[in-house]
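Mitochondrial glutathione transporter SLC25A39, pasting as requested.
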Amino acid sequence: MVNVVGKEDLGDQKQTEVMAVPATVIYFTCYDQLTALLRSKLGENESCIPIVAGIMARFGAVTVISPLELIRTKMQSKKFSSEELHQFVRKKVSEDGWTSLWRGWAPTVLRDVPFSAMYWYNYEVLKKWLCAKSGLHEPTFMINFTSGALSGSFAAVVTLPFDVVKTQKQTQLWIYESRKSLIPRLIKIAPACAIMISTYEFGKAFFQKQNARRQQY
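Structure tokens follow.
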């Protein structure tokens, strides 16, 4: 029994990693580069920068990762073996063409792009506000963590209907998804957003300091 549960947990973890790692790398890298570019063109204090950069970064990440998300969603709706999954992909491509792997792309964009725009805008606003309240010029780990959790929670609430539509489009599990409550979504997204952004900001600040020290010598 323990072995079965352990194998299932490892399988779910692998599915999550297949999606999370490339999606996060593409998403955060694009956002950072776009933000730097827009700030150089529009100025540091332009409020629309997080919105525009967030939309463009998420749009690109969704387009690249969409086939992997379709596969992961199928694996979550039914336990496929590797061979069954391979046959499913081959059948899908042979019958409907390569574009069928992007089934659910539009609902995913409708969910993730607004989420990204709201998340980054609120994150930047909250981060600046908390820094001002604390009398700090640079955000601490906890400021990033809190800003990420609050902005992620707000965006999750607003985009919940799009999440139901997206999964229904990919798996035809409308009834199952419609019964999902908001609380499990918040429990999942709020800490995930908080951990990812605070860890990312910490790592970015660390390497920036290391690069600055190297340039001094």
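Note for the archive: The two ends are 58 Å apart (CA to CA).
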